[in-house]
Design brief:
Strand content: 15-25%
Shape: globular
Strand order of the largest sheet: 6-5-4-14-13-12-11-10
Helix content: 25-40%
CATH topology of the largest domain: TIM Barrel
Low-confidence stretches: 373-384
Structural class: alpha/beta
Radius of gyration: 20 Å
CATH superfamily of the largest domain: Queuine tRNA-ribosyltransferase-like
Number of domains: 2
CATH class of the largest domain: Alpha Beta
Largest sheet: 8 strands, parallel
Mean pLDDT: 93
CATH architecture of the largest domain: Alpha-Beta Barrel
């Protein structure tokens, strides 16, 4: 068994309070997962992530495969050891990154041939190869190799993408289950792993077509993955359509397994989705926006490089207790942006991540106190 899902409360609106026991960490849900593309959450050290109570982060299979390579990481004990992170981790399949290289890729039934964005070298990803890379990286949760549908897409295109995704999901699962003894920490003998190993999530695709999404979810559930993700969102579609697809798929997914929506979203969106019953979310937005000087605050979005903050001695967010807001002023953060100082990205990112993680902490507390269907008492939070 790779994970244990403990559902402790469900609200009438569908929100779920739960815990996911993983080999390296118990994760309290609903949870926001900071994205660590190339083995780092950009500009933020691991000890700071721990202070922010980040319980699980993401690694990117495509980028880590290209540099430094999955085999060197395997030889060094896996991604947890390589980046000095002993909490939970999830790796994506590389499918979305390959999808984004539309001008540099060719898709066949067997897999995807693409050219590296680094040096133009040619590579071939199959579902089996994606699993081999993710097993070498050794994250607690891996993702099935999928084919992401762009927006807008004609129905015939969405149907073909779904056909590939379903075939690749089966191949991913079969290969993954046959190779689990290759996980770097499989025979570590560390008692905290409890004899468990990696988990694999299937990814619901189908474009923006409700019946295709339903078909995808039902076929994936027949394969019996450890958890289920809703992918192919935040690819340019209107927000109302994103919400519609999530609302369509969530009720179809098993109640006793984690539900993960990939690549979303703005602060109000992640709160809304969590209260609908999404257990896990990730997005590069907090750190990407931070590097461009956009801060998320209780008073709204703040473009810190604006001139009006040049002598503003207030904290970035007077209602925030993060390490940045306790110590620094808006004027100083603006100065760092204007001067092009590297510290700017670090401080802005820390604040934005604290804001996102704070939203999830508040939502978890709300879901604990509201009457739900289960009537059971939630477990004690590990890092809330």
């Amino acid at each position: 068994m790779g994970l244990k899902f403990n559902l402790s409360n469900t609200t009438e609106a569908g929100g779920r309070r739960a815990q996911i026991d993983l080999p390296h960490r118990r994760v309290e849900t609903p949870v926001f997962m900071p994205v660590g593309t190339a083995g780092t959450v950009k500009a933020v050290p691991q000890n700071v992530l721990e202070e922010l109570c980040a319980e699980i982060i993401l690694g990117n299979t495509y980028h880590l495969y290209l540099r430094p390579g999955h085999e060197p990481i395997r030889r060094m004990g896996g991604l947890h050891k390589f980046i000095s992170w002993d909490r939970a981790m999830l790796t994506d399949s590389g499918g979305f990154q390959v999808f984004s290289l539309s001008a540099l890729r060719k898709v066949t039934d067997e897999g995807v041939r693409f050219r590296s964005h680094l040096d133009g070298s040619s590579h071939f990803f199959t579902p089996e190869h994606s699993m081999d890379v993710q097993i070498a990286l050794g994250a607690d949760i891996a993702m099935a190799f999928d084919e992401c549908t762009e927006y807008p897409a004609e129905r015939t295109r969405a149907e073909e993408s779904l056909r590939l995704t379903m075939a690749w999901a089966r191949r991913s699962l079969d290969h993954f289950r046959a190779r689990q003894t290759d996980v770097p920490w499989y025979d570590e003998g560390d008692s905290k792993l409890g004899g468990r190993t990696q988990s694999l999530f299937g990814i619901v695709q189908g474009g923006m077509y409700r019946d295709l999404r339903k078909e995808s979810a039902e076929r994936l559930m027949e394969m019996d993955f450890d958890g289920y993700a809703i992918g192919g969102l935040s690819v340019g579609e209107p927000r109302d359509l994103t919400l519609e697809m999530i609302s369509e798929v969530l009720p179809l997914l098993p109640k006793d397994k984690p539900r993960y929506v990939m690549g979303v979203g703005y602060p109000d969106e992640i709160e809304q989705y969590a209260k609908m019953g999404v257990d896990m979310m990730d997005c590069v937005l907090p750190t990407r926006a931070a590097r461009h000087g956009l801060l998320f605050t209780s008073e709204g979005r703040m473009t810190i490089k604006n001139k009006k903050f040049a002598e503003d001695q207030n904290p970035p967010d007077p209602n925030c207790d993060c390490m940045v807001c306790r110590r620094y002023t808006r004027a100083y953060l603006r100065h760092l942006m204007q001067a092009g100082e590297a510290l700017s990205a670090t401080l802005n990112s820390i604040h934005n991540l604290a804001y996102y993680l704070g939203i999830m902490k508040r939502v978890r507390a709300e879901l604990e106190t509201k009457n739900g269907e289960s009537g059971s008492t939630p477990g004690s939070p590990v890092a809330s």
